[in-house]
Amino acid sequence: MENSPASGTLNGHRGDPTTLPGLFRLIFFTLLAWIASRFLLKAFRTAAPRSQGPPPVPPQESPREISERLVRDPVCGLALPESRALQHGDAFFCSAECRDRFLAGGQG
Ligand SMILES: [Zn+2]
After folding, report:
1. CB proximity list for 81: less than 8 A, separation 6 or greater
2. What's the whole-model pTM score?
3. If you measure from the C-alpha of residue 100 to the centroid of ligand 1, how many angstroms do you get, rounded to a whole number?
C-alpha cells in the first residue's frame, strides 16, 4: 500500500528564505524609483514654471438659471427650477397635468 502524497510534504517547499530578500529588494527599488520620480517632477516644476500662455479667463456669462433652486416633480420625477414649477402646498409640479394627476391619485 502506498500513501498518496496529497497532504503534507510534497517537495519540501516551505517559505524559501532566498526569495524573501529578492522581494524586499524589488520593493526597495520600486520605492526608490517612485521617490526619485516624485523628486524629479517637483524639481522640474519649480525649475520651469509655466509663464507662457494666456491667463485663464473666467466665463463672463450671466448666471441666469444656475443659482435657482431645483425642485422635483413627485409625479413624473422631473427636476426643474422653482420659478418654472407649479406649486401646490409643499409639492412642485412640471405642469398642470402632473398636478392634477397628483391631486386625483393622492399618494397612492
Ligand atoms: Zn411632471
Report:
1. 65, 68, 69, 70, 71
2. 0.38
3. 10
